[in-house]
Each structure stands twice: as C-alpha cells, then as structure tokens.
Amino acid sequence: MYSALNQIGKEIRIRALWLILSILLTFVCCYTFSEELLFLLAKPFIVVSKPNSYFLSTQLTETLTTYVTSSVLLCLCVCTPYGFYQMWCFFIPSCNQTQRAQLNRYCVLSTLCLISVVLVLFVWILPTIWSFLYHLNKTSTNLLTIQLQPKIYDFIMLTVRFVFLSSVCSQIPVILLSLIEYNVIELQDCVQHRRSVWFSCVLIAALLTPPDLWCQLTALLLIYFVIEFTIFYALIRVHYDALCCSKR
C-alpha cells in the first residue's frame, strides 16, 4: 500500500514538473513574440478601423503591463490542453476500454468545438462587434466630433474576455452530452424544459455581445441551435443504443 502511494506521488511530481516547465517555456515564448501576438488579437479591429488603426498608452507602464498580462493569459490558454493531457495520462490506466473510448470521444469533440468557435470568432464575430462599436463612436454630423482612440490594455483585455467566454461556451455540447450520458440530468427533462433553455440562451447572449439587436439575436440563435442540436444528437444516440441492446 505504501509502495503504491509512493509510486503515485512520484508520478504526480514528475507530471507537475513537466507542466511547470512547459508553462515557463511557453511564457518566455509568448513574451518574446508578444508584439506579434498582440497584432493577431488586434487584427479584426485593425481591418475595421483602417486607416485610423492605432491605440493609446496613457501610462509609462501600460505597454509593459499589456505585454506581460497578455503573455500570461495566452500561456494559460496554450498550456491548459497540455494540463488536461497530463491528467488524462494519469487517470487513463485505471479506466476500462469503454471508459477510454468515451474519454477519447469527448476529447475529439471538445477539440473540434473549440477550434470551430475560435475560427468563427476571429473570422466573423469579432469583426462584426468591432465594426458596430467603431461606427457607434463616429458622428454623422458636424455638431459633435467623436474620435475613437482605444487604450491598448482595455482593448486587449476585452478581446481576451470574448475569447475566454467563447471558449467556455464552445464546451456546452461536451458538458451537456457528458451529463446526459452519466445520468446526472435526464434527457427527458432537457426536452421538456425548453423555456428554461431559451431563457438561459438569452442571458448568455446578453452577456457575450454588445448592446446591438442583431448581434444579440445572432448569438442567441447560435447558442440555442447548438444546444438543440446537442439534445437531438443525444436522442439519436439513446435510440441507437436501445436498438443495439434489443438486437443483442
């Protein structure tokens, strides 16, 4: 018993050491190429605001703070999958063949959802949001002149917030399917309580998008259709499993 616990503790220390080393190396790389990474985050706004695509830095330490903070956040985003991989390698020997297949399926689904949402975010959602906010700060008459000059720190933190919230929302199908498959929630309850699902989608869309009707409506429909598609897939899965069991 003591030997087994000692072996487990040794494996945890080794995996924690590899994770810490990967975080340090990733942070060094992110900080070394912080200007290029900030350009990638600011590119959707630069495309919209040309030729007035510049940012302000009102304090001496604001640029340094932006570089360090963005490097830390990007480092955490990059190293989080590696941390889950280390956890997966630690727990997978104790799982049977069925559980391993389920974990592999959830990992693939989670990765596909995350990549799809990030691509849609940078290709379509962020340009739409920045276009709305940029044109909102431009006046159409000569009575009042408003010129947008965003602070670099505030802009990067707002962009990171959109990326973080979108990444969390991309895992809704994975979480919902896992809860249904492990009988934490009943599939019949998800089908019956459609009003609660709709209300939750309205709240999520209101928190994620700017105060624009079309942006909120688009986000609401996307989130709602993702949840509906997940429930529909779960229904097909349940009926398929029941049909396979009846044939056996």
From TrEMBL:
<keyword id="KW-0496">Mitochondrion</keyword>
<feature type="transmembrane region" description="Helical">
    <location>
        <begin position="197"/>
        <end position="214"/>
    </location>
</feature>
<dbReference type="Pfam" id="PF00902">
    <property type="entry name" value="TatC"/>
</dbReference>
<keyword id="KW-0812">Transmembrane</keyword>
<feature type="transmembrane region" description="Helical">
    <location>
        <begin position="106"/>
        <end position="132"/>
    </location>
</feature>
<feature type="transmembrane region" description="Helical">
    <location>
        <begin position="64"/>
        <end position="85"/>
    </location>
</feature>
<keyword id="KW-1133">Transmembrane helix</keyword>
<feature type="transmembrane region" description="Helical">
    <location>
        <begin position="152"/>
        <end position="185"/>
    </location>
</feature>
<keyword id="KW-0472">Membrane</keyword>
<protein>
    <submittedName>
        <fullName>Sec-independent protein translocase protein</fullName>
    </submittedName>
</protein>
<feature type="transmembrane region" description="Helical">
    <location>
        <begin position="12"/>
        <end position="34"/>
    </location>
</feature>
<dbReference type="GO" id="GO:0043953">
    <property type="term" value="P:protein transport by the Tat complex"/>
</dbReference>
<dbReference type="GO" id="GO:0065002">
    <property type="term" value="P:intracellular protein transmembrane transport"/>
</dbReference>
<dbReference type="GO" id="GO:0033281">
    <property type="term" value="C:TAT protein transport complex"/>
</dbReference>
<comment type="similarity">
    <text>Belongs to the TatC family.</text>
</comment>
<dbReference type="GO" id="GO:0009977">
    <property type="term" value="F:proton motive force dependent protein transmembrane transporter activity"/>
</dbReference>
<dbReference type="InterPro" id="IPR002033">
    <property type="entry name" value="TatC"/>
</dbReference>
<feature type="transmembrane region" description="Helical">
    <location>
        <begin position="220"/>
        <end position="240"/>
    </location>
</feature>
